[in-house]
Amino acid sequence: KGEVGNTEVNLMKKQVSALQGQLTMLQAGLAKFQKVAAFPSGQIVGNKAFVTSGYEGNFDDLRQRCLQAGGQLEKKTENAAIQQIAIIHKKAVFLGINDIQTEGRFKHLNGDDVTYSNWQLGEPNNDKGAENCVEIFVNGKWNDRFCGENRLILCEF
Ligand code: 289
Ligand code: CA
Prior knowledge:
Mannose-Binding Protein A, Chain A, four-stranded antiparallel β-sheet, elongated, 37% helix, single chain, 10 strands, binds D-glycero-alpha-D-manno-heptopyranose, 3 helices, binds calcium ion, 20% strand
């Protein structure tokens, strides 16, 4: 019985070792896939991927398209990464932030208050009393803007 037990243990050791090899291969494959997926339209920050398809739409349109794709508008602003996408496409991007609920109190879409901000000098100014969304320019600075404007989509996965 002892010998049979040893055989089973040895078999399991071999299986674990084979699985470890497969896991290493999968990890390397995933790391490579992330780089490929991020080139040239995305940025990886830790385990988050910020990606644009190049589509431009209004805030609600972008939010719906991101959700449909299994992503979301960015939850916590990774300014440098998002700025890179604006630079690559030479276009402003809508952040996942607005002050629709209470004027002047900007929140992320999950309801969290905005703690980090990078407003352009003089912003937010709620121009014409109609600016509740936030765009980030190629220079990385933020401007509050009418949510009905069309901006570049940016999804976080
Ligand atoms: O409709 C107003 C916008 O085009 C922008 O105009 C000026 O650049 C500034 O007043 C901005 O704050 C404003 O969002
Ligand atoms: Ca403004």
